[in-house]
Amino acid sequence: MFLLIMRHGEAGWHSIDHERSLTDAGRLASGAVARQIAASPWRPGHIWYSPLVRARQTAAIVSEALNCPAEEKLFLRPDDDPGLCLDHLVHEAPDKLMLVSHMPLVGSLATLLVDSHRRGIPFMTSQAVVVDMPIAGPGCADLKAQFLP
Question: Phi/psi at 93 (nearest 5 deg)?
Fold first, then answer.
């Protein structure tokens, strides 16, 4: 299985965090990364995204560029446990999947899969990484590629 992990595009400010929308720069950067992924050997077949507005908007941009379905998942919010996400990857994930979520979840999930810890690596907005997992589990993945805006 390979998994793309993407942080949402740049978002503006709103008094209610889950209602923050992408900025024009965030839309452009997300589209640029989506085009890079489309031209790569790492095209996902499905996208799972966080229920927050900025992740949903990013997933819509990527879904259109890659012509693949996108589905909201409640366990992909910023402060959710990466272990819970891993459980869903083990039991539900298709072979070629992309996640669109937030910091700190994207950073802690990436390090859990690659290095077996949850300290987390930083992700820029719209950044995506590819991890290849022969089996889904802590420390079982290899970092294969990254896409930057």
Answer: -75, 135
E strand or H helix at 132:
strand 128-132
Quote the DSSP letter at residue 113. H
DSSP 149: -
Running along the chain, 149 residues long, what does each successive block of 10 average in pLDDT?
97 90 98 98 98 98 98 98 96 95 97 91 96 93 96
What pLDDT is recorded for position 15? 86
Shortest CA distance to 60 belongs to which of 26, 92, 90, 91?
Answer: 26
To 10 degrees, what angle do helices 53-66 and 24-38 make?
40
Structural contact between residues 113 and 141, judged by C-beta atoms closer than 8 angstroms: yes
- Nearest Cα neighbor of 52 from 73, 23, 67 is 73
- Which residue ranges make up each domain of the chain? 2-147
2-147 classified as CATH 3.40.50.300 = no
Check residue 24 and give its pLDDT. 98
